[in-house]
Amino acid sequence: MKLLIIEDSSPLRRSLVVGFNNLGITTDEASNGTDGLSLALNNPYDIIILDLMLPGIDGMEILKQLRQSALQTRVIILSANSQHQDRINGLLQGADDYLTKPFSFDELHARVIAISRRGIINNFTNTITINNFILDSNTMSLRYEAIDIDLTPNEFKIIEYLFNHPNQVMSTAMISDNIANNFDYISKNTIEAHISTIRKKIKSHPITATFPLKNKRGFGYYIES
Asked: Which residues bind DNA (predicted)?
């Protein structure tokens, strides 16, 4: 994944660059709108993280020009403007998400992962088999050999998300962001309750294999492949 970070605050910009680089994500950066727009139009990026209040060209104008040029790169707006109408305007102009300052890096990272997943979901394998458990995104089902495991829509979304990212620890915030829409939130307790129910449903069947869902205490959940 490669990100472009357009942010005029040097401390914030550098902290984002260091944070994403430490996660193995490549970044380019720009401190003003003019340089940021030039980079965005002339280089391929998976996601652009865009401040609105920028010297040179403001963020909303950058977003407008990106969409007028038919560039479909995903855009996350970062802004101190927290008014409801500001969020609506940003999304209507073509942003994929809107995050108000101050924010946590973990939440921004979760949103980057969520938006990246939307962008490449068609590239995911429709059927994934791990430890003889078969997840089928076409039929929205999970089964073990010939045994069907009856899951609710949210339970399936959790397992689908984790199966599509094997061996990657996902926090409950990341899981929530991926199984809910932009304006909903599923609490940590609710996600943990869903996972507990999934485990119980699997144990209720005569299955000898171990379901590969693991918990890294204090960090989140992952599918061990």
From this structure: 125-225
* Residues sharing a CB contact under 8 Å with residue 186, sequence separation 6 or more, in sequence order: 154, 175, 176, 179, 180
Burial of 58: CB neighbours in 10 Å, binned 0-12, 13-18, 19+: middle
Distance CA 7, CA 48 (A): 11
- Measured CA to CA in angstroms, residue 163 lies from 73, 136, 191, 215 at distances of 25, 10, 16, 14
Of 37, 203, 13, give the one whose Cα is nearest residue 5.
13
CA–CA distance, 166 with 223 (Å, rounded to integer): 5
The 10 Å Cβ neighbour count of residue 127 is: 11
Contact yes or no for 137/127 (Cβ under 8 A): yes
The two beta strands, 47-51 and 2-6, are parallel
pTM of the model: 0.53
* CA–CA distance, 54 with 60 (Å, rounded to integer): 10
Of the candidates 127, 149, 137, 162, the residue with the CA atom closest to the CA atom of residue 198: 149
Cα–Cα distance, 70 to 159 (Å, whole number) = 34
Quick: pLDDT tens for 17-74. 999 999 889 999 999 999 999 999 888 888 999 999 999 999 999 998 988 876 778 9
Q: How confident is the model at residue 123 (pLDDT cuts 50, 70, 90)?
A: very low
